[in-house]
Design brief:
Largest sheet: 12 strands, mixed
Number of strands: 25
Number of domains: 3
Number of helices: 19
CATH architecture of the largest domain: 3-Layer(aba) Sandwich
CATH topology of the largest domain: Rossmann fold
CATH superfamily of the largest domain: P-loop containing nucleotide triphosphate hydrolases
Oligomer: single chain
Distance between the termini: 19 Å
Length: 558
């Protein structure tokens, strides 16, 4: 069976001028800063004027643990936004921007798929409005200013062995994970070991996505701990006098980007922290703006609910004062079969027993999301190879968990294929059943917060960490950072720290390898297992097939 590719479908889109899309939301044209005809930034002045307006209802789309079979979380987010508009609700979509590294690696883009996409697809998956380049530049300006301060006499007495601030770039490049800088003699500075992270792992990215406005942005940038003195006193970005210039570089990037779906419904695409090594949500300013402009806001959190939804609830909602009205967990029959032990090559063959065997992974996510007090519905993202018996098995399992699973065909049919889910989401949101609360209180000790996430969300038996890590956490508590939430960096493929362990394992151990203080973003990063903050390219990267065709169009993006 031949299908059009996502990029072919996107290229056929009947886009409306972005001013028309803004008008749907009541944004005057003078407050839209256009980037071409099909994308624009919304002015800070307009956003400030929305403060007194009532908020719409916030709907989170999350998923099971990702598998090579594919789940379609962004596709479902876009489809549901279109579906809500189709049934007469004023709905706005909020998703993240795509990182170039995964686009040219193996993960692909972040604009949805099939007939549930946000456009312009090519620009969104490439340079878009330049936000990521601005974040990269602001981050590396701070890096340059730290080394420059040391070179010109080191007035702050920075211990060169304790410079915590690395550099970033928006590309997968394993060769840059650990490097030595300032080689080549006296004029190049003092040699030291450092490295690169990917831009989406930058604290500057997290800060931009959690800041309420430009003043808040500059304060948070100034709060970044970049190094320590020989007396182990923290050095902040404001001590380096970098926060003002960094804010200038981020001035435009701070403004949310407005685009449209294939069905000409509004979508904010802004910010893009990874969900396995950062907090995995689009910007607070985009979400809050959308809530003032729409009756419903559909947003997503990266990867499975064990990472994305937990961080959405415990970091973003906690810090921004957001209260989700309902959550959608995306699953596929194919992924259930894969969790049940079926190889990817055999997913096209009916196997109801494997579906049943794989469903506990979905069940764990349902229970976890419910534990936050948020009502849940399951979206079965339909594939043409799914059989009636397999779909029935998933529906029966979800019913046993006290929830409902709804078959969704938005990939093939757009909003017409997801009306049932849209009606169910409205029912849940209007019922007032949400009694949202974060997983742990602010005043819980940091290590206990890590244990709470590991035991209640991952169903681990214990967390193990060296004495040096525990002492570091206690030191941060003594320094006034004990109230911060935890951002766990671990594999997205499993509830454990081993990416090969599927299903719903229990009794495992979570090893903490490293902890990092993100004082500006306002969380503690806890790195577990073999997770990398600078990914590498696969043996055959997507970049090998991305090209311009004879008509000058991009091919190979997905």
């Amino acid at each position: 069976m031949a299908f059009k590719t996502d990029i072919e479908i996107a290229r056929e889109a009947k886009k409306k001028p972005i001013m028309e899309i803004g008008a749907k939301l009541g944004i005057p044209s003078e407050h839209l800063l256009p980037y071409g005809h099909d994308k624009a930034k919304v002015s800070q002045e307009f956003i400030k004027g929305l403060a007194g307006k009532k908020d719409g209802k916030l709907i989170l789309v999350t998923a099971i643990n990702p598998t090579p079979a594919g789940e379609g979380k962004t596709t479902t987010t876009v489809g549901l936004g279109d579906g809500l508009n189709r049934i007469g609700k004023k709905a706005v979509i909020c998703i993240r921007e795509a990182s170039l590294g995964p686009n040219f690696g193996m993960k692909g883009g972040a604009a949805g798929g099939g007939y549930a996409q946000v456009v312009p697809m090519e620009e969104m998956n490439l340079h878009f409005t330049g936000d990521f380049h601005a974040i990269t530049s602001a981050h590396n300006l701070l890096s340059a200013m730290i080394d420059n301060h040391i070179y010109w006499g080191n007035e702050l007495d920075i211990d060169e062995r304790r410079v915590m601030w690395r550099r970033v770039m928006d590309m997968n490049d394993r060769a840059l994970r650990d490097i030595v800088v300032s080689l080549g003699g006296v004029s190049n500075g003092f040699p030291r070991q450092t490295g690169f992270d990917i831009t989406v792992a930058s604290e500057v990215m997290a800060i931009l996505c959690l800041s309420n406005d430009l003043d808040d942005l500059q304060k948070r940038l100034g709060d970044i701990v970049v190094a320590y003195t020989r007396a182990k006193k923290p050095i902040y970005a404001r001590d380096i006098k970098a926060d003002g210039a960094m804010t200038v570089l981020l001035k435009d990037a701070m403004q949310p980007n407005l685009v449209q779906t294939l069905e000409n419904n509004p979508a904010f695409v802004h910010g893009g922290p990874f969900a396995n090594i950062a907090h995995g949500c689009n910007s607070v300013i985009a979400t809050k703006t959308a809530l003032k402009l729409g009756e419903y806001v559909v947003t997503e959190a990266g990867f499975g609910a064990d990472l994305g939804a937990e961080k959405f609830f415990d970091i973003k909602c906690r810090k921004a004062g957001l209260k989700p009205a309902a959550a959608v967990i995306v699953a596929t029959v194919r992924a259930m079969k894969m969790n049940g032990g079926v190889a990817k090559a055999d997913l096209g063959t009916e196997n109801v027993d494997a579906v049943k065997k794989g469903c506990p992974n979905l069940g764990r996510h349902i229970a976890n999301v419910k534990s936050f007090g948020v009502p849940v519905v399951v979206a079965i993202n339909h594939f043409y190879s799914d059989t009636d018996a397999e779909i029935a098995a998933v529906k029966a399992f979800v019913a046993e968990q006290g929830a409902e699973a709804i078959l969704c065909k938005h990939w093939a049919n757009g909003s017409a294929g997801i009306e049932d889910l849209a009606h169910k989401v409205v029912q849940l949101a209007e019922s007032g059943a949400s009694n949202f609360a974060p997983l742990y209180p602010d005043d819980m000790p940091l290590f206990q917060k890590i244990e709470t996430i590991a035991k209640r969300i991952y169903h681990a038996d214990e967390v193990i960490a060296d004495k040096s890590i525990r002492d570091q956490l206690k030191g941060w508590e003594a320094a006034g950072y004990g109230h911060l939430p935890i951002c766990v960096a671990k594999t997205q493929y499993s509830f454990t720290t081993d990416p090969t362990v599927r299903g719903a394992p229990t009794g495992h151990t979570v090893p903490v390898r490293e902890v990092r203080l993100s004082a500006g973003a306002g969380f503690i990063v806890v790195i577990c297992g073999e997770i990398m903050t600078m990914p590498g390219l696969p043996k055959v990267p997507s970049a090998e097939v991305i090209r311009l065709n004879d008509q000058g169009h991009v091919e190979g993006l997905f």
